[in-house]
Design brief:
171 residues, alpha+beta, 7 strands, globular
Length: 171
């Protein structure tokens, strides 16, 4: 399902050139996403998941990747308290066609948030079975901090990953 009305796409040929771009995240974007398997598990295991989405939308550091009027994924950084934030990402199968776009975008968003919000720590949680995301988090410079047992409403287990600012380890 397209994120943008057909008449808008006709008027703006840039939306049909196979180049992904970002728009500010809005909570309703999720309604237009066919989530991947692990993203469905996480999203539907969170109590008050739409309230979380509204918090992400209001954070000011959340975006949605779009290509040809279709959503690739949404993600961002949400400040928890002074110096600390969490990062999040939900994706569609389209993400597999645009891995470089995803990687570059996430690096840029994280670097911008670190600088702008003066962060010394960014954390995230990843389902224990989601090996691809765990590897990618380590590639981004995150380190596993431990197992979080039965964390959500469906009693799924997660690993906590964190990037912590150290002089010798920039993102």
């Amino acid at each position: 399902m397209s994120l943008l009305p057909r008449k808008y796409k006709r008027r703006n040929p840039l939306l049909l050139d196979n180049k992904p771009f970002l728009v500010p995240f809005k909570s309703f974007h999720v309604e237009y996403m066919e989530l991947r398997e692990y993203d469905k598990i996480v999203f539907f295991s969170l109590p008050n998941n739409y309230r979380e989405l509204l918090a992400y939308e209001r954070s000011g550091y959340s975006w949605t990747g779009v290509v040809n009027g279709q959503i690739i994924g949404s993600g961002g950084v949400c400040k928890l308290w002074e110096g600390t934030a969490c990062c999040w990402l939900i994706t569609t199968p389209l993400i597999e066609k645009y891995p470089k776009f995803l990687h570059r975008t996430v690096i840029n968003v994280l670097r911008n948030a670190i600088k702008t919000l003066d962060l010394h720590r960014i954390e995230t949680t990843i389902l224990t079975g989601h090996i691809v995301s765990q590897r990618w988090a380590r590639r981004l410079g995150f380190e596993e901090e431990g197992l979080m047992r039965k964390l959500d409403s469906k009693q799924n287990n997660y690993y906590r990953y964190a990037w912590v600012r150290e002089d010798e380890k920039p993102l």
